[in-house]
Amino acid sequence: MKNERKLSLKTGEENLEHILKCHQMVKGDIVRGENCYLYDSKNKRYVDFESGLWCTALGHNNQRVNEAIKKQIDLVMNLGFRYTNFLAEEAAVALLDTVGLPDGKCVFLSSGSEAVEFGVQIAKNITGNKYLLTFMQSYLAAYGAAGNKYSDEWIGFDFESCLTCKEKDECNLNCEKIKNIPFESIGAVVFELGSSCGTVKFPPEGLVDLIAKEVKRNQGLIVVDEVTTGMGRTGKWYGFNHYKFKPDIVAVGKGLGNGYPVSAAAMSREVAQELEEKSFGYGQSHQNSPLGCAVAKEVINILKEERLVERSYESGTILLNQLNEMKKKYGFIKEVRGRGLMVGVELSNDADNYIDSKYVHHKMLERGFMIGCNKLRNIILFLPAFTIAENEIINLITNLNDIFRERKSLR
Ligand SMILES: Cc1ncc(COP(=O)(O)O)c(C=O)c1O
Description:
By secondary structure, the protein is of the alpha/beta class. Helices cover 37% and strands 17% of the residues. The protein has helices spanning 2-9, 51-54, 63-73, 86-99, 112-127, 144-147, 176-179, 205-217, 269-277, 290-305, 308-329, 357-366, 390-409, and strands at residues 30-34, 37-40, 45-48, 105-109, 131-135, 154-157, 186-191, 221-225, 249-252, 263-267, 333-339, 342-347, 369-370, 372-374, 379-382. The chain has a 7-stranded mixed sheet with strand order 4-10-9-8-7-5-6, with helices on both faces. A 4-stranded mixed sheet has the order 1-2-3-13. It has a 4-stranded antiparallel sheet with strand order 11-12-15-14, covered by helices on one side.
């Protein structure tokens, strides 16, 4: 009884004393969401420019997704991987169509990390003991082989200097950086084509397509981590749609569930066939779960029927244009980068123009805007739902302008 009382008193605005602190938390109690808005227990409204953690691409409390969940929980939620439900097949057909592998196969999992790790494991299973190649700028996963890209099995390629290379559009095998890649020993390249370590940097087209071509020429596989860049986030269905190559394995998460934890690994028919011939085994408690598949299928339907991938591109263009206009006014802004609604603003670290991303983040929160912040690199981030209204983009810019103007006047 004493314990129950103690627990109930500690909820709400109090600190979460029984939740492990393994990352920074903003004090508060968010109790409700509606499209791009979140409300705390005192009914203060926030405009969510992070969509959870880049998950709720269709907005919070999406009625169609809610209906799909309600319908499914009254039927069956979880089956265990031995038993089947046709929803998994329907969700797979829908997902494979979007990735451009209509005759491929899918497995539905729970988190983005799991989907990427699964992609890496199946690539390793097929290609044997060869190296894995990725960009140093990638995040990939919270754990597993994909989460430890500094281990001996990985080769990391840093594309930072390629971004300003004069020959970046004619990237070729004579380049010293490319020459250092032992393509004959690469089993798979794992691309993350929009760095999600909060830097919003996109590797050049020439570089990505050349690496993809060389990996394939040496019988390697191409895995893409589309956990953040996928489901329309970059203004196209997938991050790889901004390049020319075709992937063998595609890992998706985040937006696929619009906040519900469902992810997937999609693969080509050839990859699936080889795994099935080898009797590759994998099983977990929520694999191909009817509830996860019901959500994934409905999310894909909504993205298509409501033209939301196109909206991600259109709204992203508005946001980028507005931010680029701001850049002309303030030396605080070093660079504006983005594709679709994956947008980052790198702030200046110069003594004359310094402004701290943490300060901007804090001030925006006070004004009712949740934006992302990479303190280490001094970057502020904007990844709202694709349903964000144009007037909220304009409001965001007005408030950012106020903060920058105030700061400038203090100098
Ligand atoms: C590019 C990328 N891959 C994988 C992950 C891992 O996804 P999850 O956090 O759902 O495990 C993330 C998470 O932010 C990510 O940004």
